[in-house]
Amino acid sequence: MTNNEKYRIAVLGTGHIGKTLARSLASAGHSVKVANSRGPETIAPDVLATGAEAADAASAMQNAQVVILSIPMAKLADIAPLIRKLPQHVIVADTSNYYPHRDGNIDTFSDGQVESLWVAHLLNRPLVKVWNAIGSDSLATKGTAEATAVRISIPVAGNIEEHKKVVMSLVNETGFDAFDAGTLEESWRQQPGAPCYCTDLTYNEMKLALAATEKSRLPARRDIAVQAIQERMGDKRSNPNADYIVRLHRALFM
């Protein structure tokens, strides 16, 4: 596999992140199949507008070289049996984050378990953690060409270097600088509450942000951000827009 190679990619999940990845990677020339939990007939036409094909999960993953999981953490167990059957050469990239108000209480995280290691154990296979630390609006609207001065960076963590390199090349094709964030064991540095999380940093800023992350502070900062956003939801005068959320995360996390 080379950086110029086009891949057979399965995107599981059609939320804001999955939808954008399906569109951008298909636009870049990859063969993309996209699936959700409700069936291919429910996938909106705009998800498929750049060439991605709708499929069920099993069909999407058949012969795929890269599988991107864009599913809430609480729903990963539903897809785990299919993921466990994938050949070991298939690259699995995970975009999920843990939010207790959405995913329920997972006790092991209270003890400091790294989210990505928990997912890897659940799926019984190596992962690349990526596209989890960028807001959906930024992913959809702020991608730029290579060498742009203020190009946003995305951290990429994983333990298999070949897999990580392929995913980093895909990040570049989605319009962002891929930053090698180390091993999966270190991926807590890109969890919600971390300085790099949804703060739209450049490549040089990303290095400093990852180094400055304090693991013990992440849950409290994550929950404060959720409360601040929810407090403004539903009020047409103050409903938080994407720029507000980036500013909020910068103020709380950095």
Instruction: Give the CA-based shape.
Output: globular
End-to-end Cα distance: 37 Å
Low-pLDDT residue intervals, each spanning 5 or more residues: none
Secondary-structure element pattern, one letter each: EHEEHEHEHHHEHEHEHHH
Biggest beta sheet attributes:
8 strands, mixed
Mean pLDDT across the residues is 94
Explain how this protein is built.
The chain has an 8-stranded mixed β-sheet with strand order 3-2-1-4-5-6-7-8, sandwiched between helices. The chain contains 11 helices and 8 strands. It is of the alpha/beta class and 254 residues long. 44% of the residues are buried. Helix 10 packs antiparallel against helix 11.
Layout of helices and strands:
Blueprint: E1 8-12, H1 16-27, E2 31-35, E3 53-54, H2 57-61, E4 66-69, H3 76-84, E5 91-94, H4 100-103, H5 107-110, H6 115-123, E6 128-129, H7 136-141, E7 153-158, H8 161-173, E8 177-180, H9 203-212, H10 218-232, H11 242-253
Parallel strand pairs: 1-2, 1-4, 2-3, 4-5, 5-6, 7-8
Antiparallel strand pairs: 6-7
Any key phrases for this structure?
globular, 11 helices, alpha/beta, 39% helix
Question: How would you summarize what this structure contains?
Answer:
The protein is α/β, with parallel strands linked by helices. It has helices spanning 16-27, 57-61, 76-84, 100-103, 107-110, 115-123, 136-141, 161-173, 203-212, 218-232, 242-253; strands at residues 8-12, 31-35, 53-54, 66-69, 91-94, 128-129, 153-158, 177-180. The protein has an 8-stranded mixed beta sheet, sandwiched between helices.
